[in-house]
Design brief:
192 residues, mainly alpha, Butyryl-CoA Dehydrogenase, subunit A, domain 3, 9 helices, globular, RNA polymerase sigma-70 factor (Sigma-E family), DNA binding
């Protein structure tokens, strides 16, 4: 998606989420995949927490989502093919757990008076430039599926097929959702 014909917003999204991915210096792609659950936890925990934060926009909730994903992985450890399958399992569990959190939030909002938007932590804001902050804020205004697809594409650096697998939607839907999400993001950024 970063080739010819990219819009300024698309480049900004890619740059911002790429910057966030670069912050995750503990994850190094190696030819030797972790073999134990402990290795996977150590190597993938912070990456999954960052993914969940981008989806639910609340660090404590994101950590809970990731902990539940690792608990599920532990329960299903003996049935997994290999460590790579475990990472895919975790990613899917984090996306699904984040969806559940967002559904519960929506239900709670329907029955309670609206509350102040969640503020981002000072640490996370300090790590981002003003442009990056605007993009992260704009991502929060997108519908959940559009936000998921963009975050998985640009932060997670996943292919359309991997995004389809993690979100449970078809590759064509991933492609059209990404396109609509970038257009919506451009409109939100244009009004800011």
């Amino acid at each position: 998606m970063g080739g010819k014909g990219t819009t300024g917003v698309e480049r900004s999204v890619e740059q911002t989420l790429g910057h966030l991915r670069a912050l995750d210096s503990s994850i190094a792609e190696t030819t030797n995949q972790p073999l134990t659950l402990e290795d996977i936890y150590r190597d993938q925990r912070m990456r999954m927490v960052r993914l969940a934060i981008l989806l639910v926009d609340e660090p404590a909730t994101a950590e809970d989502v990731v902990q539940e994903a690792f608990t599920g992985l532990y329960r299903n450890w003996s049935g997994l093919r290999d460590a790579k399958a475990a990472v895919g399992y975790l990613r899917t569990a984090v996306v699904n757990g984040s969806r559940s959190v967002l559904r519960r939030r929506k239900t709670a909002r329907d029955y309670q008076p609206p509350h102040q938007p969640d503020a981002r932590s000072a640490e996370s804001l300090a790590m981002l430039t003003a442009e990056h902050q605007a993009i992260v804020a704009a991502l929060g205004k997108l519908p959940p599926r559009q936000r998921e697809v963009l975050v998985l594409r640009y932060y997670g650096d996943l292919s359309e097929g991997e995004i389809a697998e993690a979100t449970g939607i078809s590759k064509g839907t991933v492609k059209s959702t990404a396109s609509r999400a970038l257009e919506a993001l451009q409109k939100v950024m244009g009004h800011s």
